[in-house]
């Protein structure tokens, strides 16, 4: 058996994403961005007509952001110190839902912010990727951190033996998203690193 393992998401867990993405849209694209609750599908609208853009256009804009604008992202409060403290007790890897072409850029981005950890890119539910990481590392214990309830559901289904923390560090988003703890798929819901770190250390 290996060391304990932390498997952490990136966007809205380690780095802010939705706020810099919205700022970039407003500055550079013919669309406006106003997130009401967690209704991402209606948040991006044409500036001229006020109509929501097509879902396919949302993905195009997200890809443009990750192609060229990742430098706009900044760390969530407490994330850098906390993840580095965890790395003193466990292996740390990042599991992020980006296209594989963005893997190297994400790894550089995190390293530039003081988080020099291995990155796994994934598309879709995270359960299968978690299983593959666990098969490789064979950790003595593992903890998964993510901001989206559906990924905790996937983890609970495929790797139910690992601990799961639902953490959304973006305060404009956190109150509005489905809670993985309330759904029974996460073991805890803690949205600040100040309070998450003691919980995570207790699991190792």
Can you describe what's shown?
- With 204 residues, the chain is α/β, with parallel strands linked by helices.
- The protein folds into two domains: 142 residues, Rossmann fold, CATH 3.40.50; 55 residues, no CATH class.
- Helix content is 37%, strand content 15%.
- Helix 3 packs parallel to helix 7 and helix 5 packs across helix 6.
- The longest helix is centred in the N-terminal third of the chain and has 14 residues.
- The chain starts with a strand and ends with a helix.
Write the layout of secondary structure elements.
Elements: E1 5-8, H1 18-28, E2 31-33, E3 44-46, H2 55-68, H3 79-87, E4 91-96, H4 103-112, E5 118-121, H5 127-137, E6 142-146, H6 149-158, E7 163-166, E8 188-189, H7 193-203
Parallel strand pairs: 1-4, 1-6, 4-5, 6-7, 7-8
Antiparallel strand pairs: 2-3
Helix pairs in contact: 3-7, 5-6
